[in-house]
Write the structure tokens for this entry.
Amino acid sequence: MTIVRSIEKLEAIYGRPAKTSIVKEVASITPAYAKLIEASPFVALATVGPEGLDCSPRGEAPGVVRIHDSKTLMLPDRRGNNRVDSLRNIICDPRVALLFLIPGSGTTMRVNGRAEISVDPDVLASFAVDGQEPRSVIIIRVETVYFQCARAIVRSYLWKPEKYPDISGLPTIGQILADLSHGEVGGDSYDREWSDRAARTLW
């Protein structure tokens, strides 16, 4: 196997990026970029820390990430599994990356920056849904913002239901947990109860 081990070799293979790939990157959120971010109901949050990397899905109604100003984003940390891998990483290393998806659109948005975790009562209260506040809010100080072209969306048929794979044969979460824990957790009861449990603990 031939492995690329230098930037020079990499650039020789790929060449120089087009001007459009350069001018799209800016250091703050422009009005056009703000509209794309505000339309997104889903974002992947990537972090790095001493124990490794983490990429965590975050989603709710469009505007899952609030634009505080052109250099600041705010992301509520909603209820989850309490592993808090992303938050642990942010405390140790503030570097983060965000990837926004907009259903039906080929355009994705990317933001890189540095984050901190706020538990300010007023900030938490401003993100309350159905009377439930997040336990913390991630504050992202924006360093770079740019859109990603649609090729990956087009190639994956992400928004074309008629192209979706058949998922009927995939293992359920309950089955996976039961297998990994040798039957201690998970199983059919986990799968049966999941929908009701999620509805009760969504926020």
The helical segments are 7-14, 19-23, 31-39, 85-92, 121-126, 151-156, 173-180, 188-200. The two ends are 48 Å apart (CA to CA). Residues 188-200 form the longest helix (13 residues). The mean pLDDT is 96.
